[in-house]
Structure formats: C-alpha cells, structure tokens
Amino acid sequence: xxxxxLSLTEALKDEGEKSVGGRGRKRxxxxxxxFETALAFVLVIGAGLLARTFDHLRNVDPGFTPESTxxxxxxxxxxxxxxxxxxxxxxxxxxxxAGLPGVxxxxxxxxxxLSGVDVTSSYFVEGQxxxxxxxxxxxxxxxxxxxxxxxxxxxxLQGRHFEPQxxxxxxxAAGGVVIxxxxxxxxxxxxxxxxxxRIKFNRSPDTPWRTVVGMVGHVxxxxxxxxxxxxxxxxxxxxxSQAAFLVIRTDGDPNTLVGPxxxxxxxxxxxxxxxxVQTMTDRLAGSLAKRRLSMSLLLSLxxxxxxxxxxxxxxxxxxSVTQRSREIGVRMALGARRWDIFNLVxxxxxxxxxxxxxxxxALAYWATKLLGNLLFGISATDLVTYxxxxxxxxxxxxxxxxxxxRRATRVSPMSARD
Length: 418
Description:
Layout: H1 2-5, H2 8-13, H3 15-18, H4 20-58, E1 69-75, H5 83-98, E2 103-109, E3 120-122, E4 124-125, E5 138-144, H6 148-152, E6 156-159, E7 177-181, H7 182-188, E8 198-200, E9 210-216, E10 230-235, E11 243-250, H8 258-268, E12 275-279, H9 280-286, H10 289-323, H11 325-333, H12 338-367, H13 383-409
Parallel strand pairs: 5-10, 7-9
Antiparallel strand pairs: 1-11, 1-12, 2-11, 3-5, 4-8, 6-9, 7-10, 8-9
C-alpha cells in the first residue's frame, strides 16, 4: 500500500530513506517480515511433522486385513437370552450370513479391534505362577468363533484354528483350549513353541488349565500408535458374551451386505437392532480421524502463514526497490550489469528469510515440544522436516523477490540524475 502511494519525485530524491522516520519505518517493515517468516517456519514444521506422523501411521500393520470386511454389533438382552440361547443365536446368525452371495468367511468376537470395546483378563502360565503380591500379567481376551481369524484376516502362525467341538462343553467345563498371539508367546516362552503349553485365568488350584493349540499374529486393538497388550483367545462357546461383533469377509463391496444381514437378524429376533455398522476399512480410517483433523488444521494455518510471509516479503522488497531507484540508477550508470542488480535485490529478500528461519528454529524447537504426544515414528527435531522447511522458506523468499528484482533491472541509468 505504501509503495502504491509513494511519490516518484520523493523516491528519486531518496528523501524517504534519509529521514529518521523513514529509516524507522523500514526497520519495522523488515522486522515484521522476519516475524512472519519465523511464524511460517514454525507452523510449516509442525504441519510437516504431523504429516509425516500420519504417513507413518497409515503404514503401520494393524495385524489384520481390513479390506472387503463388514463389521456390526448385536447385543442380546438379559434375561431373554441365557448362555445356551446366546451361543445358539450367534452360531445361527453366522451360518445364515455365510450363505449370503459373495461371503467368504463369517466370524464373531466380543471385542473387535479399534471398536473401543476393551476386555482384559489376568492369566497364569504353568510353571511361571507369580507369588502373591507380584505383578500378574494381563492380556486382551477375545471370545471368538472358529472362523473369526479367517474373517478378519489375522494370520495363523503356528498350530490350528479353533474347531466347533472345542467349545461344545460350554461355560465352566473342565479343561479347554486357548490361542495366544506372538507377543505373548515371545515374552512367556522365548525361543520355544507355545503349542502344548498351558494357561489358566485364576490362581486357584481348582481352576482348570487350558492348552495352547495355536499362535496368531499380534493385533493393534486400541489404536495404531500405541503398544497393544498381549492377546489371548478362547472359544466363544466357553465364555459366551451377550454382545458380539459379527465379522463378514466378502469378495465384493461389503456395504451391500448391510441390508441382508439386518434382515437375517430380524428373522432370528424381530426386536433386535444392529448397530456400529462399519467396514473394517472405515473403522481403521476412523481411528486416524483426530490425527487427520489436527494435521489438516495445522497445514491450513501453515499455508496461510506462508502466503502472508510471501506477500510481506514481496511488499517490503518492492517498496525498497521503489525507494532505491536513484541508487540503482547510479549503479547502472557506473557499469553494474542487470544480473548484478537482480542478485542485489533477491539477496535482500534471502537475508530477511534467513534471519526469519534462524528465529524460527529457536521458536520451533520450543513449540514442537508441545506436539510430542501427537508424533509417532518421528522425533520433534526431525532433520529432514527441518531441512525441507528451510528450503521451502528460502524458495518462497526467492519467488517473492523475483518480480521486484526484475523491475529493478529495468531502472534506467537516467534515474541517477538529480
């Protein structure tokens, strides 16, 4: 705005720069540009760190295959449904759903990964029972149907899946089987196969032991960015749950099965609703929603700050070129080449950018500490992010200085005349 209102006569006489007030205004404008550049640097650093965090999280292996999988929850009311009725209902529902077109596998579980349902249990390992008062290990407890691992795409690493007869005795029956995940096996029996080992869920001598018949991959249960507990799986029919998630793997679009599955539930019990209906892909994306929002907001602020810094840089350099027209004319009259004038003007912009980046480094080191809990797989002082941001700010300064520099190269040596 000041450049557009500046009198050309005053500029050629260089009166603006000679006055104390003129020099003061020039310093203020330059300080504002340095501040804008520093602020943009901090925001771009933050956005860059969150973007790289988001990229790391997207590449985290959740331990299952989410594609082409529909999930939904059904809760059976008490006392209408006792243990036998609960088992019969979910088994019948799974069998009916397996007959739908395009369905490959159907399973059910009490606590689906990334669903927010948290079911844990203490466990005791044969030969490793801690003394009273010592810490007892805990694991996520999954009550599952025989086809659950296939339906969710959890790999079986050793042993076998559950079979229908594994849970036929029902709740409270002696003995039984259990499947463990690879993390529990690695910690509990390092260097050994877990198959054939025994676990129970109570310290009491009367509690029956359960034999490990399989080992599966570790699953991210609560979130992708945190360490999940070890995992134990028991046949659903051994410890029935009133509420369970149905997991359906299909060859096509899983959303097309929502209507048919709802009809199946109504056929079995017209009063039962289904809820929390999502594909596993959507559930996985939903677990990253807060991080995506944080990244998007900070990225928007970073783009705005970068734009303001560029505008400020352009304005100050353009104003400087206007005020220095006589000086530039003198340089041209004394033999300065256009390339020298161009470099002089662009150099002025780069100096402001470098000072702003230096100030931004100090601010960013402090500010990114606040992002510590939001980062994953990357440090708050990531060298790549800082380097790329510095180059971006330098490129922005060069671009903002380009047009004023071109205008400076067109100043006539006649401008040097009084």
